[in-house]
Each structure stands twice: as C-alpha cells, then as structure tokens.
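pasting GP-PDE domain-containing protein for the record, 488 residues
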Amino acid sequence: MTATKIYGHRGCMGTYPENTLLGFQKAIEQGVDGLELDVQLTKDGEVVVIHDEILDRTTDGNGYIKDFTLQEVKQFSAGVNFAHFPHYDETSWKAERVPTLQEVLELLAPYNTELNIELKTYLINYEGIEEKLDKDAEIAWLLDQRISHPLDYIQSLDLEALHISKHVALSDAYYLKDLFEIIRVWTVNEKDEIKQLLDLNHYSTVVKENHLSKKIIGFTLFIGIVILLVFYISGGREVEPMIADFPKIIAHRGANDRFNESTISAYKIAAEDGVDALEIDLRMTEDGSLVAMHDNSIDRTTNGTGEVSNFALKEIKDIPTIDVFSNQSTVEEIPTLKEILDTFTDTEHYYIETRLVNDALAMEELLVQQLNEYDLLAKDLVTIQSFSQESLERIHELAPEVPLTLLFGKGKFNLKEAKMADYPFIGMEASDVTLKNVNELHRHGKEVHVFFNDLESEKKEQERVKLLNVDGYFTNDIRFTKELLQVE
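structre below
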C-alpha cells in the first residue's frame, strides 16, 4: 500500500485565489503531495487553468472562456475578486492572471509535485482539448454516485483510479473495501471527515494539533474548499462557514410555469417534480383566514379587483384564479393554508412567507397555531421567511425552533444588515447576488437563497449564481433548475 496523499484543491483556494500561480505556490510551500486544477480552452485553442466556464466568479471579467482569446483573458485579474481573504495584498493579487497550463507546468518543474487535471467538458464540448494533453497521462473517472462493479470499469476503461465524492466514500465503507488502492476522495475539508476517511481501511491515523500525520492507507484526499490545509499544515485558525451540502430547489408559488400560481394544482405538480420545498405567500382575509396569494390585491391573478384584506373568505372563494397555459384557460380557486396542509400534510417541506396586514402584525399567531395542528414544526418541515423583521421576531417568540429567512427586495440588499441579522438564511434577488455577498454571508454562517424577479433573464441568472455557490433557488422553472443542478 502507498501512503495517503494530500492534493491542494485548485491550489490553496481557502486562503489564496484559486487556480492561480500564487495559490499553487502557496500550496507547494505547505507541503502538498499534488495539485488539483481545472482546464478550459480559449477561443484560440490555448489551455487555461480556471474552474468555471465563465470569467465572472473568479476574475473581474465576464463571459465564457471559449469566447475570448488568451490575450483577452490575460487582461483580467484573477485575484481582485478575493479581496475578502485575510491575506489579500492589493498590488500582488491584482496582478494575478488566469494561468495557462504551460505556466503551471513551468512552476512545478523544480518540485516533485503530482498534478491532477480535470477536463471541464460536461457543459461545453471543447473539441480537441484531449489532444492538448500528454497521451501517456493516467486517466481517472470523476464520480458523484456509486457505480456497480467498479473494478470492471477500471479494467475495461484502463483507468488508473476512481475519483469519488466524500459523500459516496463516507456513506458505505463496505463498498470501498476492495478499492482503497485506487480511489481518491474529493473534496474533504472537515477534521472529522478526514479522520473518518483515514480510518476506513482500519489503519491507525495520528492527528495532532495543527499537524496531519500521514499513515499507511491507499487513497488520496482532495482538500481545498474553505479551510484547505490551513488548520492541519500551516497552523492557521479554523473556519466553519455555512455552505449547504447541495442547493435547495424551492418551488416558487408552486409550478407556476405550468399552472396558476399559488394553487393546489400548482403545488401538486411541484411536489411530483420532487422539489425540496413548496413556497407559499400568505395573505389574510377580512375575517381572519390565511390564503395563498402573493399580491396584496387579487387584480393580477383573478378577474376580480381589490385588496385581499377587504374580502371575507367566502367572497374570495367566489373569485377563482385564471391563467392561460398552452393556449388554454385554467381556472382554480384561491386555496387557504389549511387546504394546502390538508393536501400534503407532512409529505412536503413548506417555505412560507409572512407579511404585515394593513401595516400591522396579524397573521403570525394563527400561522403557528395551524402549523402545530399538523405537527409540522416538531417535524422540522417548515421554514418561514419575511421582508419584515418585526414579523420574523414575532414568529421567533412563538416558535423559537423554526428556521427563519430574512428577505431583501431587489436593489435593497444590505450586506452589513444581513451579516448582523440573527437568522440562518438570507433571501435576495438574483441581481444583488455577487461573489462578495455570498462569501461574506457564508463566512458569517448563513445560507443564501435566491429569488428571480425577471422571468426573461431567470435561466441565465440561475446559471450565473450557480457558479457563486448559492444555497437555494426560488425557481419559477423547476425542470430547468433540476437540469442545471443535475438533480434526477
């Protein structure tokens, strides 16, 4: 057996700009066995080292790599977007550029450092990129799910190794029992996860404060996102950011692209699609009933007019929602919250938005009461969101255990307020989502959930914010979001 090897994921990306010569040099100085990097192809056929298919997240440029020549790519800084990192030096980091693979190889020439190159070809087919690499290079298969008979695949495809996600590795040790010599696990950052992986082959592992002792075991750990090797090798302080294991898909007013928004049918379609949560906007009628309705009036979604709070429930029920899909008119009544809960009970997670009623607190007590009638709070099946901190504070008084989301309207996002808010989730409009905002909120232990006001640009915006590692999508197109996130 060979010793466990540690690869710097995109260099030293927890503390230095990812996939840069500076980051690779720092990882080498910290004693990694190898470097992991990603390559894309420029318009003029040059192999450059960058993870994303676009420049937006990691440079001060924007657009697809494939649409730029190397000279054009070199105009953009690969360091300025990481100004929030503690070691940031404006002069030197601003000068960092997206490196070519050739430049990285020249950097590595004096060192006995292994190199793991990921071809980023699953979104864009870079014709001829394989020919740019050494034909004698070893090949590994990158996997985020189990495969049957892995040894057969290794033999038939002439693979040197399998690169499997930590979730696969940690979920089934028996599955790995014959594979320890030929697996590499990505991406591992937490102390406990590293210890579990080192213990999988039941060889003892010694972990001392600020030092990782490598013992006999036959797999490789890719370490990099957020804390990289800072705790284990350099003695830096440990960081515990909030990043969801996988982004949440939240059905915004149900499957509103296929049926009238905020109706039982729209929520049924969303539930059948397998979303993580049903998003429900609440309004209160004149006689104190909670109904699912986004707007304060019924004008947009029905043939009626007037504010919801001026109608009794019986009157609201006589004015159905109306919309048109596939050139056919669809009609369905406005549902109460209780009718939605009766329909789905405890089979779904509910992401509910509260609002003030005529500028006053009114719905919070009734909401908590109805949720408790279905035992949903005790089962952790509810998240409550609001633009009103007053409403969230009242909910917290009534149900301290329920997770809360503070919402910011388009153009009104306040990073300082969001970081200081005592809520685990922050909701913001897509146009306000930037790398700085996401990273800062993650560093303060908060998830970022994004909603999309502009339906025409939503798909493009979903693709953009995916690259910024947001944690939740209030989607108006469930099927597109599932495909984007590669969810079955």
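The domain at 248-485 is CATH 3.20.20.190 (TIM Barrel).
Confidence is low (pLDDT under 50) at residues 201-243.
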